[in-house]
Amino acid sequence: xxxxxxxxxxxxxxxxxxxxxHFLLTSGLHSPKYLxxxxxxxxxxxAERLCAQLARALDVNRIExxxxxxxxxxxxxxxxxxxxxxxxxYAERQDGKMTLRRGFTIRPAERILMxxxxxxxxxxxxxxxxxxxxxxxxxxxxxxxxxxTSGRDPGLGLPLTALLKIDVPAYPAEECPMCRAGQPLVSxxxxxxx
Length: 194
Ligand SMILES: [Zn+2]
Description:
Helix content: 25-40%
Strand content: 25-35%
Shape: globular
Distance between the termini: 28 Å
Number of helices: 7
Bound molecules: zinc ion
Strand order of the largest sheet: 5-4-3-6-7-8
């Protein structure tokens, strides 16, 4: 499953979760793409459909719990758990460290699906994996709506199953081909959808 997943791509585009043009990213870099999964997850019907599709793509059985990092992983974990008929919990940062709060626990040897909305470097998931392992759980699968790794191995020790593989190139303004072409720059995070 990758870029040929047209229905998922359509859902993203229709929701305004994937825009194409000339965007100012929060990093200050410019990109021809803007990806904001929260836009597609704000519609529960679409969120449920996408996560059910992602759950079907997983090549693993007997998942007992889904865990995602806050904030992006919360809804994805919840909808994956709905599709799999198991429970969902989330990890969140406290004093900079990924932790389980709110009474969430992992049982020893519990079989866990780890998830995210977008995986770029995989840094947050690595922390979540260490948390799960330290609690005695077993990460048996990793899933995300979008794989933005561009082929780099996030080092999670398991393959990443994603609905979509999307590259989001980023350029400093002085090297930006869209700037050179005179295309107007848009700040999608600040101005809403477009
Ligand atoms: Zn530019």
